[in-house]
Amino acid sequence: MQLCSEKTLQANKEGFFLQFADAVAANAGEKWTKNYVLEFLSNVQEIYRKKCKETSKKRRLEAEACVKNADKMKALSLFSQSVLRAPKQDENLSLSLLGRAKILISMAEYSNALADIQLSLRENLQRSLKAEAFWMMALCYRASGEEDRAQVSFNLAEKLLEGDNKRLQLPPKDAVKKKGRSAPPAIGEKHAQFEHASKKISVKTSRELGRYVVANEEIATGETLVVEPAYAACLLPEKFGTLGCPDCANVAFCKAECRDLATGSYHKYECKYLDLLIGSGMSVLSHTALRIITQNSLEKNLEMYKSRSKNRLYSLCTNSAKRSAGDFLQRTLMAAFLLRCLQKSGYFRNKNEDVVPTDEEYQIGEMLLFNLQTLQFNAHEVYETLCFKEQRLKGTKLAYIGVAIYPTVALFNHDCYPAVT
Question: At 290, phi and psi to the nearest 5?
């Protein structure tokens, strides 16, 4: 049980966090513990991977060599590495984005290719390549059925080629292979209390079972009961996307909109401490506990702290009465470590060089400790289904990509093998 609980705090055995917790537990005494913890936390500092023009150029040249050798997938990976390490407005960034877009078009990944082309043009793509970029953009628009935009892009490409002997031509509409994306299923008439759930379910409570969900109407096989956005979520580092942060080379987002949303909220506090967090070995659950805080402003979190009894997330169970003293110690130390990172990152109104928290910081620390407890039982692992042949269920694989907390879905069970998908 203890080992299982520890894994929800530190997933990587090479990390330093549990060694820190064990040292505190082994030498526990009020004065020693206070001094040791404060000394340890005073060492928290920025540790992150910076941008590097030389590394970006090297990866781009390696990618271009792979393209010549018809090694498309390796080229795609190397172009992505180049994008991640390239500083803003560097030519390697625009060239790698365009190179990656060509590969994505060959894979019929038109929406991703279009995003790369648009970004390459914003990142000062050299003039000699702009005609090709607009032609590729026209191809992507045609694939998505946006014929007017396709024609505008094609006309821009031709205009850039005035006086050039090169002639461009768009392929016929039916020659472009399209990829679609299905919308989330509908849930029918909504529940009066739980906006993301069907009215066919009810939430009940008992001393033996806690809160649980029951059906109050006939439910058809395969019927959708809840469609809920995640309250907070974290990807596994190996599942990051293709578009890097402007300031660090630690993370990559799926598209520009997600990047801009992240850099305007949670990532601006996590950015320069990610290598430290990863180096601690902390689990994705611990990162999600931090993300619940960093995705909101300090003011919003303090307001939530005051009214947390009315908040659906903060009314989920923690099983605190069943926890051992050792487990509480570990989670308290993790909360203190995460709080110190927030202090140093500028999350609070004034950067606190003093390790001892202020009253506001204590409140955020209390929320972190709650998050670390409740996520252990209420978070869901997120999977994607990988299909290797179209329209074939046989041979598909489930790939674990991250963790999320869904306050409504969490009411269904508290089982390691849940009856929800």
Answer: -70, -40
Distances, alpha carbon 298 to alpha carbons 41, 294, 333, 348, in Å: 21, 8, 21, 7
Q: How far apart are CA 330 and CA 107, in angstroms?
A: 47
Q: Which of 39, 35, 78, 75 is nearest to 58 (CA)?
A: 78
Which own/partner pairs from 16-25 qualify as long-range (CB within 8 Å, at least 24 positions apart)?
16/279, 16/280, 16/281, 17/280, 17/281, 17/282, 17/333, 17/334, 17/337, 18/281, 18/330, 20/333, 20/337, 21/329, 21/330, 21/333, 21/334, 24/329, 24/333, 25/326, 25/329
410 DSSP 8-state letter = G
Q: Are residue 137 and residue 272 in the same domain, yes or no?
A: no
Residues 355 and 303 both lie in one domain: yes
CA-nearest of 88, 89, 91 to 57 is 91
Count how many domains the chain has: 2
Q: Which two tokens stand for residue 161?
A: 């080629």
Question: What is the sign of the dihedral through the CA atoms of 331, 337, 341 and 344?
Answer: positive
Q: Pick from 175, 190, 211: which residue ends a domain?
A: 175
User: Is 205 within the bounds of a domain?
Assistant: no
Element (H, E) at 201: strand 201-206
Q: pTM for this structure?
A: 0.85
pLDDT in tens, 79-88: 999 999 999 8
Neighbours of 190 (CB within 10 A): 13
DSSP 403: E
- In tens, the pLDDT along 304-340 reads 999 988 899 999 989 888 898 889 989 999 999 999 9
Half-sphere exposure of 85 (CA within 13 A, CB side): 16
Residue range(s) defining the domain that contains residue 235: 2-47+231-380
